Amino acid sequence: MTDRAKQMERAELHAHLWSSVSVELLWDLSHEQWIKLPVKDFDAFKAWITMWETDKNADIKEMDEKYFHWTELIQSSPTAVETAIKTTIWTNYRKSNLTLQEVRFNPMFRNKKWELDLDYIIVAAIHWLDYATLQYNKVKAWIVLCMDRRLSFRKNQIILEKAIKYKNRWIVWIDLSGPQSKDFSMEEHKALFDLAKQSWLWVTIHTWEEWSLEELKYVAEVIKPHRIWHGIMAVQDKKIIKALKKNDIVLELCPTSNLKNSKVKDLKELSHIIRTLLKHDIRLTLNTDWAVMYQINIIKEEDLLLENEIITETELNQMYKNAFDYSFVK
């Protein structure tokens, strides 16, 4: 680990719980819960559950059916969520000096299709987040509950209601995630985002490669979330850039993720996107997104950008400052 890696305090705002748990722990949890896996030995499981080969890419549909499904299934119990939360906090702090972390997940993808009570899942996460930050008292962390495009309006409303219910117990953000669905309406869900803001919840929304420029424009101009996950298509439309700046919306960049899902074709295009956003003074943060699936951490993301001269050390420092400034975790 370099001197920079040891000394710099870091903040990460964009990491999914399902891909923040080590392959070894996922393997153990699957067997403890008697989950029938598609493979029989650990090496095959690691190859199945990660994208660790440098030349291996996948589209969002493949990721949803393969990686998302199995990792979320393995974490589908209060005990598994407890373990996932505490090990995520501890590991990120010890390995990457992440002193501020936002951990997010969708509780409805952890309850085995209503077999388990949502409140038990959420309270388990809250309890162990409290415990983890007590043990490592230098670490500040928060939970973000995710709604999803694949769920009905009513199910997303229930998730928001749970976030409001527990908003004074480590939950102050609501998110919208998930691949696009023909039945999903961003306009219909605006009412939920308005309610979230009225209830003093902060809002973040996934708007990235799978969705249209029209949706991203609507989100930036009308919904006005505090942060947008990815948002890299903004460089294609000056009106979106203008809306991001006017409404002080922060973009959460995930370089490796955008490369591995093949929506950014190479480092040259990645550099163009980041340099364009910086040129227009859009506030950016650096994140891993799906760290275990890609077998990376936040330091490797730094190295990717610095070694390829996509950003400078000064710009990296500003990204972390943005993360500390624009997280509700204080």
Question: What does this entry look like structurally?
Answer:
With 330 residues, this protein is of the alpha/beta class. It is 51% helix and 13% strand. The protein has 15 helices and 8 strands. An 8-stranded parallel beta sheet has the order 1-2-3-4-5-6-7-8. It is globular, with a radius of gyration of 19 Å. The two termini are 27 Å apart.
Provide the fold topology.
Layout: H1 3-7, E1 10-12, H2 23-32, H3 42-49, H4 60-74, H5 78-96, E2 98-105, H6 118-135, E3 140-148, H7 153-165, E4 171-177, H8 186-198, E5 202-207, H9 213-223, E6 227-230, H10 238-246, E7 250-253, H11 255-260, H12 267-279, E8 284-286, H13 291-294, H14 298-307, H15 313-325
Parallel strand pairs: 1-2, 2-3, 3-4, 4-5, 5-6, 6-7, 7-8
Helix pairs in contact: 5-6, 7-8, 8-9, 9-10
Mean pLDDT: 89
Biggest sheet architecture: 8 strands, parallel
CATH homologous superfamily heading: Metal-dependent hydrolases
Give the distance, in angstroms, between the N- and C-terminal Cα atoms.
27 Å
Number of helices: 15
Provide the number of structural domains. 1
Q: Architecture, according to CATH?
A: Alpha-Beta Barrel
In terms of quaternary structure, the protein is single chain
- Outline type: globular
Structural class estimated from helices and strands: alpha/beta
CATH class: Alpha Beta
* Uncertain runs: none
- Content of β-strand: 5-15%
